Amino acid sequence: MEKDKVGGQAAKGPESADKPLEFFILDYPKSKYEAIPLAAEWAQIIRRKEENRHMTPNEILEMAIRDVLSGKITLKDVRKASVQESAESPDALLNGSDKSK
C-alpha cells in the first residue's frame, strides 16, 4: 500500500490542476493567437465575480489561461457570460427603462 502512495497512484486530483500551465500552452490544438484575447476577456469576467475578489491579478490570469487552453471555456461561453453580465449591470437596467418610454 505504501508503494501506491510513493508512486502517486493513491489519490489523483482534477486533470487540469495536475498539469503545469506550460503543458496547456504547448498542447493547445488551435491558434494560440486566438486564445490570448479570449483568455484576457475571460479574466475580466472572472475578476468581476464577487467570489473571486480575494484573488490576485496573476491568479486570475493564470486561471483564465488554464480554463481557455484546457477547453473548459470556449468563445461561446465567454460571449454568453459577457451578455449575461451586461444584462445584469445597473446601466443596462437604466437604459432598458429609457427605451420603454
Description:
The protein has 101 residues and is mostly helical. The protein has one domain. The protein is 71% helix and 0% strand. Helix 4 crosses helix 5.
Set out the fold topology.
Layout: H1 2-7, H2 15-18, H3 21-27, H4 32-48, H5 57-70, H6 75-88, H7 90-99
Helix pairs in contact: 3-5, 4-5, 4-6
User: How far from one another are the termini?
Assistant: 72 Å
| Total count of helical runs of at least 4 residues | 7
* Structural class estimated from helices and strands: mainly alpha
Q: Which radius of gyration do the C-alpha atoms yield? A: 19 Å
The domain tally reads: 1
Percent in helix: over 70%
Describe the main β-sheet briefly.
Answer: none
